[in-house]
TrEMBL record:
This is OsmC family protein. It holds the Pfam family OsmC. The gene is yhfA. It comes from Alicyclobacillus acidocaldarius (strain Tc-4-1). InterPro entries: KH_dom-like_a/b, OsmC/Ohr_fam, OsmC/Ohrsf. It comes from the Bacteria.
Length: 151
């Protein structure tokens, strides 16, 4: 399976990227690196990709489980190396869910996304640490079974 994205330099540190979806995004460096603030920074887009990927998974998994998810917001906080390349070493993902969602099913959906379905997470070397806030209450990780293996 192949995916093609084309990036075009627009001057200074500003780039346009177009992908197979037909949508365009713009990237730029921070001002101290010669950017002009005309787009997201590439590492922001990487975290946004993780949030979008796992969010789509969670919504689909909950739908298949017939769990009435009312709201989902995912916060990603990435920790990066000080030296170059300044890759992410750890990413905390906090899943804020609302609705009549059993905690075990919420954790199962999170684990399935992070361990099996989310291609963005699977493409990173960073350690991913999930957190769940269900209807405003933090829920500690539960042991759930994913693919016949205990978590």
């Amino acid at each position: 399976m192949e995916m093609k994205v084309v990036g075009k330099w627009l001057g200074q540190r500003h780039f346009q990227a177009d992908g197979p979806s037909g949508n365009t995004i713009y990237m730029d460096a921070k001002k101290e690196d010669g950017g002009t603030g005309q787009g997201n920074r590439p590492m922001e887009l990487l975290l946004m990709g993780v949030v979008g990927c796992t969010g789509i998974d969670i919504a689909m998994i909950m739908e298949k489980m017939r769990v009435p998810l009312q709201g989902l917001e995912i916060e990603a906080v990435g920790e990066r190396r000080e030296e170059y390349p300044q890759a992410f070493t750890r990413i905390h993902l906090t899943y804020h869910m609302t609705g009549d969602v059993p905690p075990a099913k919420a954790w199962r959906a999170i684990r399935l996304s992070e361990q099996k379905y989310c291609s963005a997470i699977g493409s990173l070397k960073a350690e991913v640490i999930p957190h769940l806030v269900l209807n405003g209450q933090e829920v500690p990780p539960l042991d759930v079974v994913v693919d016949g293996q205990p978590d």
